[in-house]
């Protein structure tokens, strides 16, 4: 664990490198996993370079306000924690510890349905925290219902339904590793504890051996061919607002709006599901346009590594962004203090970008300030006085 003073000296790249040293190999492999040839994973990060900030000057920028609201709840930074499974690989207290770091940052945490700690334990560890609960619609709906009920009881303010995972593409490969190491089979701490509920199906699977539970029953819960009818079902069992996570197209965004979603997270699941899906920052504008003035809030996750990335996402229409892997790196490096440092570092970077681009508040990022780089390849923006190249027709 790295002390607070040292944490302040770490860049995002340092956090990643140190986390790799600290987290044991199978945990690191799980966190670092990306589907297929890792194209979507890599492009989600690289794609931010395709967006350019056109700064204003002489705007008298003093204090910068980086607070915002999500579903009516004020947060101190437009940066939140995305749901990610099994934080126990990064810290022995797992999600209890990350929840404390997010609470101290005054932000929002989405707890994964595949957390290594119970929903109630997380609420107890960070009682003042603002949280939403992620779930899938599992094949056996009793799992989903259990998660929703626990989240309601623990004061969570919304349900986040992940809609990009009708199957989990990585489970087989990872379980082979886990099974070899023995973790998921022998150590209850390394389990998705909120799925081990008191229902006959789980007892039966358990009775036929842990290996059966982990390698057959639980993965099979992800083979759930869901439709918007299942979204209706979810709405029917809770009065909490529902946010759809994993939307990348205008068509899907419109369906989510029609179905009654309160929010949309533009996300490619950190490149862990469909390899070949677009980078979220590329998909953002069409989703924002499709949502229009429906009051459905649009957020983004995937590839956020700096304040500049955050500014670009907000400038392209996201209300807030979510971090996946950076939270795990912060957690591994410094526990709750490490998570908090990630928020502080990115918040400070964001404030700098706001000053340098002439935006005193997040509500005042003018449309057209963050443009795709093709803007600069467009002839219309070439000076009218530019000379024409004698060899061809291009402007000098
Ligand atoms: C280790 C790990 C576990 C994840 N588990 C979940 C999960 O349980 N549910 C979910 O909806 N998304 C999950 N995600 C995806 C994240 O919520 C998020 O979409 C993604 O990590 C964002 O990309 P980033 O890691 O580049 O920030 C997971 C991501 C990682 C890295």
State the main characteristics.
12% strand; 396 residues; eight-stranded parallel beta sheet
Q: Provide the gyration radius in Å.
A: 22 Å
Output mean pLDDT. Answer: 91
**Global shape:** globular
CATH topology: TIM Barrel
Write down the CATH class. Alpha Beta
How many alpha or pi helices? 16
Give the number of DSSP strands. Answer: 12
- Overall domain count: 1
The CATH architecture would be Alpha-Beta Barrel
Q: Give the CA-CA distance, first to last residue.
A: 55 Å
Structural class: alpha/beta
Strand content: 5-15%
Could you say which small molecules are bound to this protein?
Answer: flavin mononucleotide
Numbering strands along the chain, what is their spatial order in the largest sheet? Answer: 4-11-10-9-8-7-6-5
Largest sheet: 8 strands, parallel
Structure description:
The chain is α/β, with parallel strands linked by helices and 396 residues long. It has one domain (4-371): Alpha-Beta Barrel (TIM Barrel). It has helices spanning 4-7, 12-22, 25-32, 39-46, 95-104, 119-125, 141-153, 171-181, 183-186, 200-207, 210-221, 228-237, 250-259, 280-291, 307-315, 325-357, and strands spanning 51-53, 68-70, 73-75, 79-81, 108-111, 130-135, 159-162, 242-247, 263-266, 297-301, 321-323, 370-372. It has an 8-stranded parallel beta sheet. Residues 179-186 have low confidence and may be disordered. Flavin mononucleotide is lined by residues 30-31, 44, 82-85, 112, 114, 134, 162, 245, 267, 269-270, 272, 301-304, 323-325.
